[in-house]
Structures are given as structure tokens and as C-alpha cells.
Amino acid sequence: MQGKITLVGTGPGDKDYICPRALQALEQSDIIAGYKTYIELIKTLFPEKQFASSGMKKEVDRCVEVLELAEVGNVVSLISSGDAGIYGMAGIMLEIVAERQSEVPVDIIPGISAATSAASLLGAPLMNDFVTLSLSDLLTPWELILKRIRAAGEGDFAVALYNPRSKTRIKQLDTAVDILLQYQKPETPVGIVKQAMREGQQVVLTTLGELKNADVDMLTTVIIGNSQTQVINGKMVTIRGYRL
Amino acid sequence: MQGKITLVGTGPGDKDYICPRALQALEQSDIIAGYKTYIELIKTLFPEKQFASSGMKKEVDRCVEVLELAEVGNVVSLISSGDAGIYGMAGIMLEIVAERQSEVPVDIIPGISAATSAASLLGAPLMNDFVTLSLSDLLTPWELILKRIRAAGEGDFAVALYNPRSKTRIKQLDTAVDILLQYQKPETPVGIVKQAMREGQQVVLTTLGELKNADVDMLTTVIIGNSQTQVINGKMVTIRGYRL
């Protein structure tokens, strides 16, 4: 009996935004594993399945558990919200399978990323070149994150910020704003999206100059415009130059 | 009779990667409009629909046509491959609706982006911060693109390259490689994906030092790793630091 691991990106959460290939993989799984918040969202769709949920910062343990379940013949889906390959579980899962010299096959099914779903609610802020950046320094040294914020400003990139602020990590966003203000005007449009396509969805437009005062937490996606970003009819749009 | 415009991201092309909300919007449309290559892909799914296809570089005309069709009461879907908000039709459509002071409602349904689907086939190369960059200088000045390539190197970002090379624009990719080689080693892993999730799919792993010699065209997505990217068991993975 050959087990299997499938990394599944479940998009923003609502089943209308999960692609058919991902739904099919979940349907065909013996066990669906993942971070407990995302498992709760998926449970309602597949009430008859077996689930294995775990807490935050338990990523390695979660992957080891998934591998052990697959090694004994289970078809296991490991879910990430958004896309499994963007700050999701795909990388660490591949690492652990290789490290253990396992021959369990691993498939990755892409999903609609948090940046993409947030952008669609705001308008079209990512129409041209952009940077995807996490402000969490749990896995990336803060000095490197600082360098990346500067590079984003230097290149006049729009910026999609993940993990902008947590309960204990509150200054990073302020520092990012201060750095970007060296390159962009205070009136640069900024979009803030919480719970995209889910109950309690919030979509707020503000500016880079006002971003420090905004209501932002760990589950918020923040999109900061570049020098070509405007608010048109209430929508945030980064102009790509078609009209020139 | 109120018309409506829906921007629909159709993902890599195969219907298994189009989210249910997008399929529903296409199903409910009177007319589906878009660039002819993408319309051909969608036509097979909705053979009974009315289609309006147009050529490349006709983006403005296409949007004006869509708006005029919606103004007289049609429900029109305008499709982009991947996500409509990433080098797609969302921005220019919102601009034209505003410019004409139209009150036709515009909805945007996100899709799985080309970078995301390519990444899922390669492994997990976009696991940490990355830059999404188009090498086409039709809509962005080449000087600005150069600055952005340098910024990508400076920030040790992985890079998802769109429009890496066309029949007439062949030097840009070579220049990008030369610049990135000032920051990254020649053995930095690079993934090349053509026709993701479609007939004729090609997935190739190479290195930054060899990228100039690779078979790359306008419909190829190129993902260049950063200093933390490795090839593990044949998969391209950007390590995010979980194991430290």
C-alpha cells in the first residue's frame, strides 16, 4: 500500500475560491492535516474526513507527522491557506521528505495567494512589478528584512506585506513605513485586507503616511502602492502605462 | 437592463485550476472577451457562449469594446490567464471605466498566477520573499526595469520573471542574468516552466550561469532562486529557516 502527500493551497478560505483539482485531492485523502485555523475552515466542507490539526510554530512536527502517516500507506493532504508555496508548507515538507530519504511521492497543488485575493478586492494594485515580503523575523533575520524593504523602495516596487504585525511584534511595520517614506510620498495609496472572501471581510484604503495608525494584525494583508499607484473610483490601481 | 463587467483570472488554463467562482461568472456571462490565445483555451469549456477575442497589444481597444457591450446591458466577462490583477486586464479596465465615467459595476475574481503555478511544478522556490518582474519594456521603461533587477539582487530576493524573452526582444534576459550574477552565484538554481498544466508542459531546472542558453520565450515563466535556494531530490526549494 503506497501512501502519498499532497500539498494543497486552499486560497482565501471560501470554497468558491479553491480550484477543482485541490477539492478533488482533499476529497480523495484519508487524512487532511494543517494548522488548526485552516482545518476549521475546511472541516465544514468535508465533515466525514479524518483531520490532524496542529498549532502555530509547529511546522516541522506537522510535516514529520504527515510523512509518518503517508509512510504507512495513508493518502494525506497537508493544507496551507492561500498558496502552499508562498510562506506555506511546501518547502519544509519537501525538505523533511528528502532528509528522511523517504520515497513517498509529494504533489503540490497551487492556490490563489493571499496577495492576489487581497489585490482583487482592492482593485488592481499589483498590475506591475511588485515585491512579496513577510515582516515576521521568526524565520528571516531582521537585518535582511530591512535590506529588502530598502530594495523595494529603491526599485519603486509595489509591496505585498505578509505578517505585518503580531501582538508581540509591533514596531516592524512602523520601521517599514519609515523606510518606504524615504522613497515614496506619504499620500501613496495603501490597501488593507482582513478575512478576504470570508465572514468579517474588511477592505480599507489608506495612505503610506497613515499606515502606522491602521488596524493591522497577523492575518492582515497590506498592499503598498508605488509611485504609479492611484485611487480611481474608490479602487487602488497601479498604472502600467497602457495610456502613454 | 443593467450590464456588468467581471474580470476573471483563469489560472494556468486547465479547467481543474479555475476556481468555482470564476467558472460560475463565465457560465453566467452573455459574452466572454479576451486575448485570442486564452479565448481558445476557454471556448472548449463553454462551447455555447458568445466570444469576443482580440490580438496582443490591443488591450485598450478590448476594454473599450467590453465596456460598450456592458453599457447596453450585457453581462461580460473579460478573461486574463493567471490572475487578472498581475500583468492582466484588471488595471486598464478600471481606468477606462473611470475615464468614461461609466457606472457599470466591475468585479474582479482572482486566479492562480503564472508564478504560483510554475512554482508548484518546480517545488517551492517562492517560499520566502520574492520579486515579480516583467522584462517587457513595452509598458515600463527599460531603465526602470534595470533598476528593479539590481534591487532584486541587492535584496537577495528570489525572482519570478514574466515575459522573459520575445522574438524581437532577446537581449533583456541576458542583461538581467549579468546583473543578477553580480549578487548571486552562477550555480544558483533556476526553474523554467512552459505551458504549465497544459498540453506540452515543460519543466526544466538549470542554473543562473546557464540561463542565457536556455530555451525561453514570451510564454515561459522563469524563477530564479536566491542565496538560500537549493535543489533537493530534483525539486527547487528556497529554504526559509525552519531548521535553524
Automatic annotation (TrEMBL), chains A, B:
**Pathway, per record:** Cofactor biosynthesis; adenosylcobalamin biosynthesis
- GO terms under biological process: cobalamin biosynthetic process; methylation
Q: Name one Pfam family in it.
A: TP_methylase
The record, for SUPFAM superfamilies, names: Tetrapyrrole methylase (SSF53790)
Tetrapyrrole methylase domain boundaries? 4-211
| GO MF term set | methyltransferase activity
Q: Does the keyword Methyltransferase apply?
A: yes
- Highest taxon of the lineage: Bacteria
Which keywords accompany this UniProt record?
Answer: Cobalamin biosynthesis, Methyltransferase, S-adenosyl-L-methionine, Transferase
Q: What is this protein called?
A: Cobalt-precorrin 3 C17-methyltransferase
What is the organism of origin for this protein? Answer: Mangrovibacterium diazotrophicum
